[in-house]
Design a protein that fits this description.
Layout (H helix, E strand, L loop, with lengths): L3 H6 L12 H21 L4 E6 L3 H17 L2 E2 L2 E4 L2 E4 L3 E6 L4 H20 L4 E6 L5 H10 L5 E3 L7 H11 L3 E3 L6 E2 L12 E5 L1 E2 L10 H5 L3 E2 L2 H13 L4 E5 L17 E2 L13 H9 L6 E5 L8 H9 L6 E3 L7 H7 L5 H14 L4 E8 L6 H14 L3 E6 L17 H25 L4 E9 L6 E6 L4 E5 L8 E9 L4 E5 L1
Parallel strand pairs: 1-2, 1-5, 5-6, 6-7, 7-8, 9-14, 10-13, 13-15, 16-17, 17-18, 21-23
Antiparallel strand pairs: 3-4, 11-12, 19-20, 19-22, 20-21, 22-23
Helix pairs in contact: 2-3, 2-6, 9-10, 13-14
Bound molecules: 5'-deoxyadenosine (5AD) and iron/sulfur cluster.
Iron/sulfur cluster binds next to helix 7.
Amino acid sequence: MWNNTLLDSVDIEGPAPDTEPARQYYFMKKCRAIVSRKAEETGRDLTYMVETLGCQMNAKDSEKMTAILEYIGYVEGGVEEKKDGKSITADFVLYNTCTVRENANQKIYGHLGFLKNQKEKHPMMRIALCGCMMQEDDEVDKVKRSYPFVDIVFGTHNIHKLAELIYEHLVSGNRVVDVWDKPKQIVEELPGNRKYPFKTGVNIMYGCNNFCTYCIVPYVRGRERSRYPEKIIDEIKALVDDGVTEVMLLGQNVNSYGKSFGVEASIKDDREVSAEAGEGTDFASLLRRVNDIEGLRRIRFMTSHPKDLSDDLIEAMADCDKVCDHLHLPLQSGSSNILRKMNRSYDKESYLSLVERIRKRLPDISLTTDIIVGFPGETDEDFEETIDVVDRVGYDSAYTFIYSKRTGTPAARFPDEVPDDVVKARFDRLLGVIHDRSSSIYESRVGKIYEALVEEINDHDDSMVSARLSNNSIVHMKGDRSLIGEYLQVKLVESKGFYYIGERV
Ligand code: 5AD
Ligand code: SF4
Protein backbone atom coordinates (compact mmCIF):
# COMPACT_ATOMS: atom_id res chain seq x y z
CA MET A 1 0.00 0.00 0.00
CA TRP A 2 0.93 3.61 -0.56
CA ASN A 3 3.05 5.09 2.22
CA ASN A 4 2.55 8.85 2.28
CA THR A 5 4.96 9.48 5.11
CA LEU A 6 7.72 7.77 3.22
CA LEU A 7 6.82 9.58 0.03
CA ASP A 8 6.90 12.98 1.73
CA SER A 9 10.25 12.30 3.30
CA VAL A 10 12.00 11.33 0.05
CA ASP A 11 14.37 14.07 -1.03
CA ILE A 12 14.78 14.23 -4.80
CA GLU A 13 17.65 16.71 -4.76
CA GLY A 14 20.14 14.11 -3.56
CA PRO A 15 21.08 10.71 -4.98
CA ALA A 16 18.53 7.90 -5.31
CA PRO A 17 18.09 5.80 -2.15
CA ASP A 18 19.34 2.20 -2.36
CA THR A 19 16.44 0.66 -0.49
CA GLU A 20 12.93 -0.09 -1.72
CA PRO A 21 10.31 1.23 -1.86
CA ALA A 22 12.00 4.61 -1.07
CA ARG A 23 13.97 4.29 -4.30
CA GLN A 24 10.80 4.05 -6.37
CA TYR A 25 9.19 6.94 -4.54
CA TYR A 26 12.28 8.96 -5.45
CA PHE A 27 11.89 8.11 -9.15
CA MET A 28 8.15 8.71 -9.10
CA LYS A 29 8.79 12.20 -7.77
CA LYS A 30 11.57 12.78 -10.30
CA CYS A 31 9.33 11.71 -13.19
CA ARG A 32 6.51 13.82 -11.83
CA ALA A 33 8.67 16.93 -12.18
CA ILE A 34 9.55 16.06 -15.79
CA VAL A 35 5.96 15.23 -16.77
CA SER A 36 4.63 18.40 -15.21
CA ARG A 37 7.21 20.44 -17.12
CA LYS A 38 6.20 18.74 -20.37
CA ALA A 39 2.54 19.35 -19.65
CA GLU A 40 3.30 23.05 -19.17
CA GLU A 41 5.27 23.19 -22.42
CA THR A 42 2.53 21.52 -24.43
CA GLY A 43 -0.33 23.27 -22.65
CA ARG A 44 -2.20 20.03 -21.92
CA ASP A 45 -2.11 17.01 -19.63
CA LEU A 46 0.05 14.11 -20.71
CA THR A 47 -2.00 10.95 -21.24
CA TYR A 48 -1.48 7.22 -20.69
CA MET A 49 -3.08 4.07 -21.99
CA VAL A 50 -2.60 0.64 -20.45
CA GLU A 51 -3.72 -2.47 -22.28
CA THR A 52 -3.74 -5.70 -20.30
CA LEU A 53 -3.82 -9.17 -21.75
CA GLY A 54 -4.10 -12.44 -19.88
CA CYS A 55 -5.10 -13.40 -16.38
CA GLN A 56 -6.07 -11.78 -13.07
CA MET A 57 -2.40 -11.56 -12.10
CA ASN A 58 -1.70 -9.29 -15.03
CA ALA A 59 -4.83 -7.28 -14.23
CA LYS A 60 -3.54 -6.79 -10.70
CA ASP A 61 -0.07 -5.81 -11.94
CA SER A 62 -1.70 -3.28 -14.27
CA GLU A 63 -3.60 -1.74 -11.36
CA LYS A 64 -0.28 -1.19 -9.62
CA MET A 65 1.33 0.28 -12.71
CA THR A 66 -1.52 2.66 -13.57
CA ALA A 67 -1.30 4.02 -10.03
CA ILE A 68 2.39 4.74 -10.58
CA LEU A 69 1.64 6.43 -13.93
CA GLU A 70 -1.06 8.56 -12.34
CA TYR A 71 1.18 9.59 -9.50
CA ILE A 72 3.80 10.59 -12.06
CA GLY A 73 1.21 12.91 -13.59
CA TYR A 74 -0.13 11.07 -16.61
CA VAL A 75 -3.91 11.08 -16.95
CA GLU A 76 -5.86 8.25 -18.54
CA GLY A 77 -6.72 9.00 -22.19
CA GLY A 78 -5.31 9.24 -25.65
CA VAL A 79 -7.49 6.54 -27.21
CA GLU A 80 -10.24 7.42 -29.63
CA GLU A 81 -12.69 5.13 -31.36
CA LYS A 82 -13.14 6.60 -34.83
CA LYS A 83 -15.31 5.49 -37.70
CA ASP A 84 -12.29 4.15 -39.56
CA GLY A 85 -10.88 2.40 -36.47
CA LYS A 86 -9.03 3.23 -33.30
CA SER A 87 -6.62 6.11 -33.02
CA ILE A 88 -4.03 6.26 -30.27
CA THR A 89 -2.45 9.54 -29.26
CA ALA A 90 -1.49 8.65 -25.66
CA ASP A 91 1.88 9.98 -24.53
CA PHE A 92 2.62 6.78 -22.65
CA VAL A 93 1.39 3.44 -23.97
CA LEU A 94 1.93 0.33 -21.86
CA TYR A 95 1.14 -3.20 -23.00
CA ASN A 96 1.06 -5.78 -20.24
CA THR A 97 1.53 -8.97 -22.23
CA CYS A 98 0.51 -12.61 -21.84
CA THR A 99 2.24 -15.59 -23.38
CA VAL A 100 0.14 -18.51 -22.18
CA ARG A 101 -0.94 -19.30 -25.72
CA GLU A 102 0.70 -18.44 -29.02
CA ASN A 103 -2.20 -16.27 -30.21
CA ALA A 104 -1.62 -13.93 -27.23
CA ASN A 105 1.86 -13.25 -28.63
CA GLN A 106 0.56 -12.74 -32.14
CA LYS A 107 -1.93 -10.23 -30.82
CA ILE A 108 0.88 -8.14 -29.35
CA TYR A 109 2.85 -8.09 -32.59
CA GLY A 110 -0.33 -7.04 -34.40
CA HIS A 111 -0.78 -4.18 -31.92
CA LEU A 112 2.86 -3.15 -32.31
CA GLY A 113 2.52 -2.81 -36.08
CA PHE A 114 -0.40 -0.48 -35.50
CA LEU A 115 1.40 1.48 -32.77
CA LYS A 116 4.37 2.15 -35.03
CA ASN A 117 2.06 3.99 -37.35
CA GLN A 118 0.43 5.93 -34.49
CA LYS A 119 3.78 6.92 -33.04
CA GLU A 120 4.89 8.35 -36.38
CA LYS A 121 1.94 10.73 -36.13
CA HIS A 122 2.57 11.46 -32.41
CA PRO A 123 6.30 11.54 -31.85
CA MET A 124 5.91 12.31 -28.13
CA MET A 125 4.45 8.84 -27.62
CA ARG A 126 6.51 6.49 -25.45
CA ILE A 127 5.85 2.77 -25.76
CA ALA A 128 6.54 0.19 -23.05
CA LEU A 129 6.08 -3.57 -23.04
CA CYS A 130 6.03 -5.69 -19.91
CA GLY A 131 4.55 -8.91 -18.54
CA CYS A 132 4.93 -12.61 -19.23
CA MET A 133 5.90 -12.47 -22.89
CA MET A 134 8.84 -10.24 -22.03
CA GLN A 135 10.25 -12.97 -19.77
CA GLU A 136 11.07 -14.95 -22.90
CA ASP A 137 14.50 -14.24 -24.38
CA ASP A 138 13.41 -14.95 -27.96
CA GLU A 139 10.56 -12.48 -27.76
CA VAL A 140 12.73 -9.75 -26.24
CA ASP A 141 15.30 -10.33 -28.98
CA LYS A 142 12.58 -10.04 -31.60
CA VAL A 143 11.31 -6.77 -30.09
CA LYS A 144 14.86 -5.40 -29.94
CA ARG A 145 15.55 -6.38 -33.53
CA SER A 146 12.31 -5.61 -35.30
CA TYR A 147 10.51 -3.00 -33.21
CA PRO A 148 12.99 -0.17 -32.60
CA PHE A 149 10.19 2.24 -31.67
CA VAL A 150 9.51 0.35 -28.40
CA ASP A 151 11.14 2.47 -25.69
CA ILE A 152 10.95 0.38 -22.51
CA VAL A 153 10.88 -3.38 -21.98
CA PHE A 154 10.60 -5.12 -18.61
CA GLY A 155 9.18 -8.36 -17.26
CA THR A 156 7.02 -9.73 -14.47
CA HIS A 157 9.56 -9.52 -11.64
CA ASN A 158 10.25 -5.78 -11.65
CA ILE A 159 6.97 -4.01 -12.33
CA HIS A 160 7.62 -2.00 -9.16
CA LYS A 161 10.52 -0.36 -11.05
CA LEU A 162 8.27 1.30 -13.64
CA ALA A 163 9.05 4.85 -12.48
CA GLU A 164 12.79 4.21 -12.45
CA LEU A 165 12.68 2.77 -15.96
CA ILE A 166 10.61 5.69 -17.25
CA TYR A 167 13.04 8.12 -15.64
CA GLU A 168 16.02 6.38 -17.19
CA HIS A 169 14.40 6.53 -20.59
CA LEU A 170 13.17 10.12 -20.35
CA VAL A 171 16.56 11.39 -19.21
CA SER A 172 18.72 9.41 -21.64
CA GLY A 173 16.34 9.14 -24.58
CA ASN A 174 17.66 5.59 -25.00
CA ARG A 175 15.73 2.38 -25.10
CA VAL A 176 15.68 0.72 -21.68
CA VAL A 177 15.48 -3.08 -21.43
CA ASP A 178 15.42 -4.53 -17.92
CA VAL A 179 14.15 -8.10 -17.60
CA TRP A 180 15.01 -10.12 -14.49
CA ASP A 181 15.17 -13.87 -14.87
CA LYS A 182 14.24 -14.33 -11.20
CA PRO A 183 12.48 -12.24 -8.59
CA LYS A 184 15.00 -10.45 -6.39
CA GLN A 185 12.65 -8.60 -4.16
CA ILE A 186 8.98 -8.34 -3.34
CA VAL A 187 8.29 -4.62 -3.21
CA GLU A 188 4.84 -3.93 -1.94
CA GLU A 189 4.45 -0.54 -0.38
CA LEU A 190 3.63 1.04 -3.70
CA PRO A 191 0.41 2.63 -4.81
CA GLY A 192 -2.49 0.61 -6.20
CA ASN A 193 -5.19 1.91 -8.49
CA ARG A 194 -8.45 0.02 -8.45
CA LYS A 195 -10.59 -0.39 -11.51
CA TYR A 196 -13.59 -0.67 -9.18
CA PRO A 197 -13.60 1.24 -5.88
CA PHE A 198 -15.43 -1.60 -4.10
CA LYS A 199 -13.53 -4.67 -5.24
CA THR A 200 -10.00 -5.67 -6.05
CA GLY A 201 -7.54 -8.54 -6.28
CA VAL A 202 -4.98 -9.18 -3.56
CA ASN A 203 -1.87 -11.21 -4.34
CA ILE A 204 -1.34 -13.90 -1.76
CA MET A 205 1.40 -15.68 -3.63
CA TYR A 206 3.41 -15.39 -6.79
CA GLY A 207 4.72 -17.96 -9.26
CA CYS A 208 3.97 -21.63 -9.76
CA ASN A 209 5.80 -24.88 -9.00
CA ASN A 210 3.53 -27.27 -10.82
CA PHE A 211 5.12 -27.46 -14.23
CA CYS A 212 2.08 -28.77 -16.05
CA THR A 213 3.80 -29.96 -19.21
CA TYR A 214 1.92 -27.60 -21.56
CA CYS A 215 2.31 -24.48 -19.46
CA ILE A 216 4.82 -21.68 -19.74
CA VAL A 217 3.75 -19.87 -16.54
CA PRO A 218 6.34 -21.45 -14.20
CA TYR A 219 9.06 -20.29 -16.61
CA VAL A 220 7.85 -16.70 -16.85
CA ARG A 221 6.51 -16.10 -13.34
CA GLY A 222 9.12 -18.08 -11.41
CA ARG A 223 8.84 -20.36 -8.37
CA GLU A 224 6.07 -20.18 -5.83
CA ARG A 225 6.46 -17.48 -3.18
CA SER A 226 3.77 -17.00 -0.51
CA ARG A 227 3.28 -13.61 1.06
CA TYR A 228 3.23 -13.50 4.83
CA PRO A 229 -0.30 -13.66 6.23
CA GLU A 230 0.15 -10.51 8.36
CA LYS A 231 0.89 -8.50 5.25
CA ILE A 232 -2.11 -9.87 3.40
CA ILE A 233 -4.42 -9.19 6.33
CA ASP A 234 -3.02 -5.66 6.78
CA GLU A 235 -3.47 -4.95 3.10
CA ILE A 236 -7.08 -6.16 3.09
CA LYS A 237 -7.91 -4.18 6.24
CA ALA A 238 -6.54 -1.04 4.62
CA LEU A 239 -8.53 -1.76 1.46
CA VAL A 240 -11.70 -2.23 3.48
CA ASP A 241 -11.04 1.10 5.21
CA ASP A 242 -10.82 2.56 1.73
CA GLY A 243 -14.22 1.24 0.59
CA VAL A 244 -13.48 -2.27 -0.67
CA THR A 245 -16.08 -4.92 0.20
CA GLU A 246 -15.03 -7.75 -2.10
CA VAL A 247 -11.56 -9.20 -2.50
CA MET A 248 -10.22 -11.84 -4.84
CA LEU A 249 -7.23 -13.65 -3.34
CA LEU A 250 -4.84 -14.24 -6.21
CA GLY A 251 -2.27 -16.92 -6.92
CA GLN A 252 -1.57 -19.43 -9.70
CA ASN A 253 -2.31 -22.17 -7.19
CA VAL A 254 -3.80 -20.72 -4.02
CA ASN A 255 -4.29 -24.16 -2.49
CA SER A 256 -0.58 -24.51 -1.95
CA TYR A 257 -0.42 -21.17 -0.13
CA GLY A 258 1.87 -21.39 2.87
CA LYS A 259 4.23 -24.01 1.49
CA SER A 260 6.61 -21.36 0.26
CA PHE A 261 7.23 -18.76 2.96
CA GLY A 262 10.69 -17.27 2.78
CA VAL A 263 11.48 -19.26 -0.36
CA GLU A 264 14.73 -18.19 -1.98
CA ALA A 265 16.70 -16.45 0.71
CA SER A 266 17.85 -13.98 -1.89
CA ILE A 267 14.36 -12.50 -2.20
CA LYS A 268 14.26 -9.64 0.24
CA ASP A 269 10.95 -8.47 1.49
CA ASP A 270 10.28 -4.78 1.91
CA ARG A 271 9.59 -5.04 5.63
CA GLU A 272 11.46 -7.16 8.08
CA VAL A 273 9.50 -10.28 8.91
CA SER A 274 10.83 -13.18 10.90
CA ALA A 275 11.27 -16.46 9.06
CA GLU A 276 8.58 -18.04 11.22
CA ALA A 277 6.04 -15.29 10.54
CA GLY A 278 3.85 -17.40 8.33
CA GLU A 279 4.53 -20.83 9.80
CA GLY A 280 1.42 -22.90 10.25
CA THR A 281 -0.74 -20.81 7.94
CA ASP A 282 -2.15 -22.67 5.00
CA PHE A 283 -4.82 -21.47 2.60
CA ALA A 284 -7.70 -22.75 4.73
CA SER A 285 -6.48 -20.88 7.80
CA LEU A 286 -5.76 -17.76 5.74
CA LEU A 287 -9.36 -17.83 4.49
CA ARG A 288 -10.62 -18.02 8.07
CA ARG A 289 -8.50 -15.04 9.03
CA VAL A 290 -9.65 -12.99 6.05
CA ASN A 291 -13.24 -13.94 6.83
CA ASP A 292 -12.84 -12.32 10.26
CA ILE A 293 -12.04 -8.91 8.80
CA GLU A 294 -14.80 -6.55 9.75
CA GLY A 295 -16.45 -4.62 6.93
CA LEU A 296 -15.44 -7.11 4.25
CA ARG A 297 -18.43 -8.82 2.63
CA ARG A 298 -17.20 -11.14 -0.08
CA ILE A 299 -14.12 -13.27 -0.58
CA ARG A 300 -13.21 -14.94 -3.84
CA PHE A 301 -10.04 -16.74 -4.82
CA MET A 302 -8.33 -17.88 -7.98
CA THR A 303 -6.94 -20.37 -9.01
CA SER A 304 -7.40 -23.67 -7.20
CA HIS A 305 -5.42 -26.65 -8.34
CA PRO A 306 -7.49 -29.82 -7.77
CA LYS A 307 -4.47 -31.75 -6.49
CA ASP A 308 -4.05 -29.46 -3.47
CA LEU A 309 -7.67 -28.82 -2.58
CA SER A 310 -7.89 -30.21 0.95
CA ASP A 311 -10.94 -31.26 2.97
CA ASP A 312 -9.81 -28.61 5.40
CA LEU A 313 -10.32 -26.00 2.73
CA ILE A 314 -13.79 -27.33 1.93
CA GLU A 315 -14.61 -27.05 5.64
CA ALA A 316 -13.23 -23.51 5.77
CA MET A 317 -15.31 -22.54 2.75
CA ALA A 318 -18.40 -23.97 4.40
CA ASP A 319 -17.68 -22.20 7.70
CA CYS A 320 -16.78 -18.79 6.29
CA ASP A 321 -19.92 -16.85 5.46
CA LYS A 322 -18.06 -14.33 3.29
CA VAL A 323 -16.53 -16.89 0.95
CA CYS A 324 -18.52 -16.81 -2.29
CA ASP A 325 -20.44 -19.76 -3.71
CA HIS A 326 -18.03 -20.18 -6.55
CA LEU A 327 -15.04 -22.37 -7.21
CA HIS A 328 -12.90 -22.31 -10.32
CA LEU A 329 -11.48 -25.80 -10.57
CA PRO A 330 -9.47 -26.32 -13.76
CA LEU A 331 -10.01 -29.76 -15.22
CA GLN A 332 -7.80 -29.40 -18.33
CA SER A 333 -8.78 -32.90 -19.50
CA GLY A 334 -11.16 -35.63 -18.36
CA SER A 335 -8.83 -38.40 -19.47
CA SER A 336 -6.55 -39.90 -16.82
CA ASN A 337 -4.10 -40.78 -19.56
CA ILE A 338 -3.85 -37.18 -20.79
CA LEU A 339 -3.85 -35.80 -17.24
CA ARG A 340 -0.77 -37.93 -16.53
CA LYS A 341 0.94 -36.60 -19.63
CA MET A 342 -0.01 -33.10 -18.53
CA ASN A 343 1.59 -33.74 -15.11
CA ARG A 344 -1.59 -32.65 -13.34
CA SER A 345 -1.19 -35.12 -10.41
CA TYR A 346 -4.85 -36.19 -10.34
CA ASP A 347 -6.93 -38.47 -12.49
CA LYS A 348 -10.50 -38.56 -13.70
CA GLU A 349 -11.77 -40.50 -10.69
CA SER A 350 -10.04 -38.36 -8.07
CA TYR A 351 -11.31 -35.18 -9.75
CA LEU A 352 -14.87 -36.49 -9.78
CA SER A 353 -14.68 -37.63 -6.18
CA LEU A 354 -13.32 -34.22 -5.18
CA VAL A 355 -16.28 -32.58 -6.92
CA GLU A 356 -18.60 -34.92 -5.05
CA ARG A 357 -17.06 -33.98 -1.68
CA ILE A 358 -17.31 -30.29 -2.55
CA ARG A 359 -20.94 -30.55 -3.66
CA LYS A 360 -21.91 -32.52 -0.56
CA ARG A 361 -20.53 -29.92 1.84
CA LEU A 362 -21.28 -26.86 -0.36
CA PRO A 363 -24.53 -27.66 -2.16
CA ASP A 364 -25.00 -24.14 -3.57
CA ILE A 365 -21.59 -23.84 -5.11
CA SER A 366 -21.11 -23.02 -8.79
CA LEU A 367 -18.18 -24.68 -10.45
CA THR A 368 -16.30 -23.30 -13.41
CA THR A 369 -13.29 -24.74 -15.18
CA ASP A 370 -10.55 -24.57 -17.81
CA ILE A 371 -10.26 -27.24 -20.49
CA ILE A 372 -7.61 -27.78 -23.13
CA VAL A 373 -8.55 -29.56 -26.36
CA GLY A 374 -6.02 -31.24 -28.64
CA PHE A 375 -3.17 -31.93 -26.22
CA PRO A 376 -0.57 -34.11 -28.03
CA GLY A 377 -1.70 -37.72 -28.15
CA GLU A 378 -5.35 -36.93 -27.30
CA THR A 379 -7.44 -39.69 -28.88
CA ASP A 380 -11.18 -39.75 -29.54
CA GLU A 381 -11.53 -41.91 -26.42
CA ASP A 382 -9.60 -39.38 -24.33
CA PHE A 383 -11.80 -36.61 -25.62
CA GLU A 384 -14.93 -38.60 -24.76
CA GLU A 385 -13.67 -38.78 -21.17
CA THR A 386 -13.57 -34.98 -21.12
CA ILE A 387 -17.12 -34.80 -22.43
CA ASP A 388 -18.15 -37.31 -19.78
CA VAL A 389 -16.68 -35.21 -16.94
CA VAL A 390 -18.27 -32.03 -18.29
CA ASP A 391 -21.58 -33.81 -18.42
CA ARG A 392 -21.28 -35.26 -14.94
CA VAL A 393 -19.96 -32.19 -13.14
CA GLY A 394 -22.26 -29.59 -14.69
CA TYR A 395 -20.16 -26.44 -14.85
CA ASP A 396 -21.72 -23.00 -14.73
CA SER A 397 -19.22 -22.06 -17.39
CA ALA A 398 -15.93 -23.25 -18.79
CA TYR A 399 -13.01 -21.57 -20.49
CA THR A 400 -12.01 -23.79 -23.38
CA PHE A 401 -8.66 -23.57 -25.09
CA ILE A 402 -7.14 -25.17 -28.11
CA TYR A 403 -3.77 -26.60 -27.10
CA SER A 404 -1.01 -24.21 -28.04
CA LYS A 405 2.57 -25.42 -28.28
CA ARG A 406 4.87 -23.32 -26.09
CA THR A 407 8.57 -23.57 -26.88
CA GLY A 408 10.56 -24.68 -23.85
CA THR A 409 7.75 -26.67 -22.22
CA PRO A 410 8.01 -30.50 -22.16
CA ALA A 411 4.80 -30.98 -24.18
CA ALA A 412 6.30 -29.03 -27.08
CA ARG A 413 8.41 -32.16 -27.75
CA PHE A 414 5.58 -34.68 -27.31
CA PRO A 415 4.68 -36.80 -30.36
CA ASP A 416 1.27 -37.31 -31.93
CA GLU A 417 0.08 -33.79 -32.47
CA VAL A 418 -3.64 -33.76 -33.12
CA PRO A 419 -4.55 -32.54 -36.64
CA ASP A 420 -6.20 -29.11 -36.77
CA ASP A 421 -9.48 -30.30 -38.26
CA VAL A 422 -9.88 -32.93 -35.51
CA VAL A 423 -9.14 -30.36 -32.82
CA LYS A 424 -11.62 -27.93 -34.33
CA ALA A 425 -14.38 -30.56 -34.47
CA ARG A 426 -13.72 -31.60 -30.85
CA PHE A 427 -13.62 -28.00 -29.72
CA ASP A 428 -16.97 -27.18 -31.30
CA ARG A 429 -18.57 -30.29 -29.85
CA LEU A 430 -17.22 -29.46 -26.38
CA LEU A 431 -18.60 -25.92 -26.59
CA GLY A 432 -22.00 -27.34 -27.45
CA VAL A 433 -22.02 -29.74 -24.48
CA ILE A 434 -20.84 -27.05 -22.07
CA HIS A 435 -23.45 -24.66 -23.36
CA ASP A 436 -26.33 -27.14 -23.09
CA ARG A 437 -25.33 -28.16 -19.60
CA SER A 438 -24.79 -24.62 -18.34
CA SER A 439 -28.02 -23.27 -19.84
CA SER A 440 -30.04 -25.80 -17.89
CA ILE A 441 -28.12 -24.93 -14.70
CA TYR A 442 -28.79 -21.23 -15.31
CA GLU A 443 -32.44 -21.94 -16.04
CA SER A 444 -32.83 -23.84 -12.76
CA ARG A 445 -32.18 -20.68 -10.73
CA VAL A 446 -34.82 -18.52 -12.42
CA GLY A 447 -37.46 -17.30 -9.99
CA LYS A 448 -35.09 -17.38 -7.00
CA ILE A 449 -33.79 -14.39 -5.06
CA TYR A 450 -30.06 -13.73 -4.62
CA GLU A 451 -27.85 -11.02 -3.25
CA ALA A 452 -26.06 -9.16 -6.04
CA LEU A 453 -23.28 -6.58 -5.96
CA VAL A 454 -23.85 -3.86 -8.55
CA GLU A 455 -20.64 -3.36 -10.53
CA GLU A 456 -21.33 -1.03 -13.41
CA ILE A 457 -23.73 0.53 -15.85
CA ASN A 458 -24.72 -1.98 -18.51
CA ASP A 459 -22.53 -1.75 -21.61
CA HIS A 460 -25.44 -1.75 -24.04
CA ASP A 461 -28.25 -0.03 -22.18
CA ASP A 462 -27.53 2.79 -19.76
CA SER A 463 -30.89 2.44 -18.01
CA MET A 464 -29.62 -0.91 -16.70
CA VAL A 465 -26.91 -1.94 -14.26
CA SER A 466 -24.87 -5.13 -14.19
CA ALA A 467 -24.40 -6.94 -10.92
CA ARG A 468 -22.63 -10.10 -9.79
CA LEU A 469 -24.08 -12.87 -7.66
CA SER A 470 -22.02 -14.67 -5.07
CA ASN A 471 -21.83 -17.61 -7.50
CA ASN A 472 -20.14 -15.28 -10.01
CA SER A 473 -22.97 -15.11 -12.54
CA ILE A 474 -24.05 -11.75 -13.88
CA VAL A 475 -27.51 -10.24 -13.65
CA HIS A 476 -28.69 -7.14 -15.51
CA MET A 477 -31.53 -5.05 -14.10
CA LYS A 478 -33.03 -1.58 -14.20
CA GLY A 479 -30.98 0.90 -12.24
CA ASP A 480 -28.63 3.85 -12.33
CA ARG A 481 -25.13 4.89 -11.34
CA SER A 482 -26.12 5.52 -7.70
CA LEU A 483 -26.43 1.76 -7.18
CA ILE A 484 -22.83 0.97 -8.09
CA GLY A 485 -21.10 -0.74 -5.17
CA GLU A 486 -24.43 -1.62 -3.48
CA TYR A 487 -25.56 -5.10 -2.44
CA LEU A 488 -29.16 -5.68 -3.52
CA GLN A 489 -31.65 -8.51 -3.27
CA VAL A 490 -32.48 -9.48 -6.83
CA LYS A 491 -35.01 -11.88 -8.27
CA LEU A 492 -33.78 -13.69 -11.37
CA VAL A 493 -36.56 -13.22 -13.89
CA GLU A 494 -35.07 -14.70 -17.03
CA SER A 495 -31.99 -16.67 -18.00
CA LYS A 496 -30.26 -15.67 -21.21
CA GLY A 497 -27.98 -18.69 -21.27
CA PHE A 498 -24.95 -17.27 -19.52
CA TYR A 499 -26.42 -14.23 -17.74
CA TYR A 500 -29.70 -13.21 -16.15
CA ILE A 501 -32.23 -10.46 -16.35
CA GLY A 502 -33.37 -9.61 -12.84
CA GLU A 503 -35.54 -7.36 -10.74
CA ARG A 504 -34.85 -5.68 -7.42
CA VAL A 505 -37.03 -6.99 -4.63
N1 5AD B 1 -2.32 -24.27 -24.55
C1 5AD B 1 -3.64 -24.09 -24.31
N2 5AD B 1 -4.12 -23.68 -23.13
C2 5AD B 1 -3.24 -23.45 -22.14
N3 5AD B 1 -3.43 -23.04 -20.87
C3 5AD B 1 -2.22 -22.95 -20.28
N4 5AD B 1 -1.25 -23.29 -21.14
C4 5AD B 1 -1.86 -23.61 -22.31
C5 5AD B 1 -1.41 -24.05 -23.58
N5 5AD B 1 -0.11 -24.24 -23.82
C6 5AD B 1 -4.74 -22.81 -20.29
C7 5AD B 1 -5.00 -23.76 -19.12
C8 5AD B 1 -4.93 -22.84 -17.94
C9 5AD B 1 -5.41 -21.54 -18.52
C10 5AD B 1 -5.07 -20.33 -17.75
O1 5AD B 1 -4.79 -21.50 -19.79
O2 5AD B 1 -6.30 -24.27 -19.28
O3 5AD B 1 -5.72 -23.28 -16.86
FE1 SF4 C 1 0.38 -23.45 -15.48
FE2 SF4 C 1 -0.22 -25.72 -14.21
FE3 SF4 C 1 0.95 -23.68 -12.86
FE4 SF4 C 1 -1.58 -23.45 -13.68
S1 SF4 C 1 -0.81 -24.95 -12.19
S2 SF4 C 1 0.05 -21.90 -13.88
S3 SF4 C 1 -1.58 -24.57 -15.62
S4 SF4 C 1 1.85 -24.88 -14.52
